[in-house]
Design goal:
8 strands; 16% helix
Amino acid sequence: MNFNHLTLIVSDLPRSLAFYRALGLVPIVHEAPRYARFIFPDGDATLSIEVTGAPALPPRAQLYFECEDLDQRVQQLRAAGLVFTQLPTDMPYLWREARLADPDGHDVRLYRAGRNRLDPPWKLRPEQVPG
């Protein structure tokens, strides 16, 4: 199984389109006024955004985008006008992470984890995997 994509419900397509383009995602589908889909600059995962017209709910998603050049990327994004709630910080779970919110308040985290993303010191061994 391979992860394909995630769709975020947004309130304003042009505003969200501009935000995710500023992060470096590349639009591959644009069906104004309700839908757009992006591919990431590395790999083949995609993210879509959709205006459904449903009543706004509090944002619930946390999106993690891995960046090998995290500190430089954050500097570039700040220079382009994006506002971070946390600049790159070494976290207790061994990731270096910066945080910002998309226009609808979804929590966006840019991080660098290296081998700790898939192989942290506390990773389960095969005999520890539940049922």
